[in-house]
Amino acid sequence: MRQTIISILMLIFLSRWKLLHAHLCFDGSDAVKRHRPLKFCSEYSGLGCCSTKTDSAIWNEFKNTKTKIPTQYWRTCEQYLKKIFCAKCDPNSGHFYNIFGLDNLGDFPGLCKGYCDQLYSECREIIPYLTNNTLILNEIETSDSFCSFVQSIDQRYCFAGTNFAVNKRSQKKDPTTNPCLCLQPFATGLILPSFVIGVKDDTHRLFIGDAHGEIFIYYLNGKAEKEPYLDISKSVVFKYDLGLLNMAFHPNFNENKKFYVFYGTEHETVNGRQSTVRVSEFKQSSENPNIADLSTERVILELDEPVKYHPGGQIMFDENGFLLVTLGDLSFQPIGSTLNTSEMAGSVLRIDVDVYDADGRPYGIPADNPFVGDPDFLPEIYAYGLRSPWRCGQYDGDPSSGEGKGRIICGDVGWNKWEELDLLKKGANYGWNVYEGPKCRQKNKCDKIANLEQPIHSYHHSQGSAVVGGYFYRGCQIPKLTGKYVYGDFTGWLATLSLKSDQWKSETINFCTDLCTKPLNNQINQKLISFGEDVEGELYVLEGRFPRSKNKDGVVYRLVDPSKSSDSSSCIATNRLKIFLTESTQLQTSTSIQRHSSIRPQRKQMELFSTTKSPPSGKQSLFSSLMENVRGFIRRFFRKFL
Predict the structure, then answer these.
(1) Which letter, b or e, does each residue of 105-117 get, where b requires 16 or more Cβ atoms within 10 Å of its Cβ?
(2) What is the distance between the alpha carbons of residues 463 and 433, in angstroms, rounded to a whole number?
(3) How far is the C-alpha of 405 from the C-alpha of 396, rounded, in Å?
(4) pLDDT at 331
(5) Is the pLDDT of residue 615 over 80?
(6) Residues contacting 257, CB < 8 A, separation 6+
(7) 9-25 pLDDT, tens digit each
(8) Alpha carbon distance 578, 358 (integer Å)
(9) Residue 572: its pLDDT value, please?
């Protein structure tokens, strides 16, 4: 047991110190530079994963397979056959063959979508000769089913028939100021996407909210469940700024299956129907993890919203497990002050959803809220003086020192001159409507503002029209963004905010020109609506039509680095290890299979470092298999580096 614990600790240590390289071979080793050219897979004679012996074996396999293929397909399909056989020589074949085990493609590389469509269109008949995997062969009836099955889960690392290491798109110099990024289409056919959020329950699900009232489940390969996870479209008011705006999972979601949504709705009054904003609790179905139970709705908070503008809409749990709710001034004209602390409008509320208050509220008041016991303030208020806060992000802290952990930045939409980004602080007053951004609007009141907190960054309307708050980047695919707060503007530009020498500095994110080739985009085509993030910390950009319509024009993009130069393998290895250890007793449960059942037959989830073995039965065999692979990795490491 001592040896196995040391093995795990060493793997984590090596991963965190980036001794694993981005180039990764199909057998788990690192790609190396060859001094002797390869005779068959000659395009990989430089940096690659094949020795001359492996190259010779591939040549023999190619010859044997070619003799079985009818001669009428040779001329058109011979190159496809060779390229797929030689894919193992690619310096990133470990990603194509997914040695981290989220797919069961066996001896078949994960393909890029476009290349797969081309292969199927021109040479469908040779596919049975490329693999013996019955799971793949069962899917070759149509292009959609085949390519959905064999395309790489992460399309940033997929096989497109070319040497990934010398891919021209990866090496071409872009004329714009580097670094530059691209937008990779992830989900389409939405009316107005409003949020993307991952859940830390080891299912790798993404929840995408459509403002008209539905939440859909997507997976990292872009596939989605057919039925919505939650459909409250009959209750949602989808007009002006209202709609289904946000979602948050309870910190103990794995046990209690509770989640929360913020949406606009309406109810009958003596004067007719009155619109409101509402925060409600729901539970996931006990029978189907991909559907919410509508009957479990518990209304936590509800406020009248007569004009349907500036509802706020962010809900999130802080480090202490309390729910934060941002509310705008619920107005359109700058006539009402959010400095009236006997009302909730224009505030960040902080509440305890796990208890009922003695005064009859369906939530509790945290004892350390800043205004508890102050008769001039509602006890729910954590901060106030906001106009229209739209999207907040919470920082995990510096990886080495932990500095900044729990820091929250919110975008607050201005009136007619200034947009601002605010660092959320306990008891702070952000000054609306006496202040807009950094400037005083009402000269006779400015010096009377108590606890005024100026924005950490602001910009004039000559540079944009409405700020869209975002998230701190904590992924591994774009290291140049690590620790930075990514935000944007409704007009379509993106930027980062970072703390340097005690000053917050904003830097524009450049979209690449030459590198963003189809299907990648280098601009927001409509309006920037929101941002989202998955459990791994990768960011998503949401665009939609405005003014709103019922057309399904909304698009969710993944923010990507087209150079693919990130050192991602260490992050992947560390994260997969965490996932595996938490799932070790659940790998064979029906959840991992059922969650895709409405899409296509699911590729079975495999072991962390294996691509060919079936999942062993029982907790002990899973642990033993993991330990054997960990020991194998450490042996390979010491042979290479020591």
Answers:
(1) bbbbbbbbbbbbb
(2) 21
(3) 5
(4) 74
(5) no
(6) 283, 284, 286
(7) 555 444 443 333 456 78
(8) 41
(9) 47
CA 226, 229, 234 angle in degrees (round to 5)? 100
For 352, the 3-state DSSP assignment is strand
The average pLDDT across 438-466 equals: 91
Contact 163, 90 (CB under 8 A): yes
Cα 179 to Cα 149: distance, rounded to the nearest angstrom = 33
In this predicted structure, what is the pLDDT of residue 640? 42
Location of structure tokens 């919410």: 292
C-alpha span between 318 and 248 (Å, rounded): 11
What is the distance of C-alpha 521 from the center of its chain? Answer: 18
- What stretches of 314-387 show up as alpha helix (H) in DSSP? none
Report the C-alpha gap between 197 and 189 in whole angstroms: 18
* Nearest residue to 277 (alpha-carbon basis) of 250, 239, 249, 248: 239
3-class DSSP state of 51: coil
Q: Are 608 and 577 in contact (CB under 8 A)?
A: yes
Please report, as a single letter, which amino acid is at residue 92. N
Q: Which residue has the tokens 């975002």?
A: 470
The residue whose two tokens read 């503002």 is: 449
Contact 204, 224 (CB under 8 A): no
Between 179 and 351, name the one with better pLDDT.
Answer: 351
481: its two tokens: 């963004």
Please tell me the number of Cα atoms within 13 Å of 251 on its side-chain side.
Answer: 12
Looking at per-residue pLDDT, the higher value among 53 and 576 belongs to 53
CB distance 317 to 251 below 8 Å: yes
CA angle, corner 433, sides to 432 and 435, nearest 5? 70
- Which 8-state DSSP code applies to residue 41? S
DSSP code of 490?
T
For the chain, what is the mean pLDDT?
A: 80
Which of 269, 292, 266 lies closest to 277, judged by CA?
Answer: 266
Least confident piece of the model among 96-100, 158-162, 385-389, 411-415: 96-100
Q: Which backbone phi and psi does 320 adopt, to 5 degrees?
A: -95, 5
Q: Which of 378, 236, 382 is nearest to 320 (CA)?
A: 382
- Tokens found for residue 40: 């068959």
- Is 500 buried (19+), middle (13-18) or exposed (0-12) by CB count in 10 A? exposed
**pTM for the full model?**
0.67
The one-letter amino acid code at 426 reads: K
Maximum Cα–Cα distance across the chain: 90
Q: How far is CA 456 from CA 33, 248, 487, 502, 508, in A?
A: 48, 26, 13, 11, 16
Structure tokens at 537: 């910390």
**Distance between CA atoms of residues 88 and 109, nearest Å:** 8
DSSP state at residue 55: H
DSSP state of 572: H
Task: Measure CA of the first residue to CA of the last residue in the chain; give whole Å.
Answer: 25
Query: Which tokens in the block code for residue 551?
Result: 């057309």
With CA atoms as reference, report the closest residue to 561 among 482, 490, 634, 616: 482
- From its phi and psi, is residue 78 left (phi > 0), alpha (psi between -120 and 50) or beta? alpha
Q: How far apart are CA 338 and CA 381, in angstroms?
A: 12
Q: What is the mean pLDDT of residues 611-628?
A: 44
The order of strands in the sheet holding 347-351 is 315-317, 323-326, 347-351, 381-384
Sorted by where each starts, the structural domains of the chain and their CATH numbers stand as 23-179 (no CATH), 180-560 (2.120.10.30)
55 φ, ψ (degrees, to nearest 5): -60, -40
CA torsion through residues 167, 169, 174, 176, sign: negative
Please say whether the beta carbons of 211 and 527 come within 8 A: no
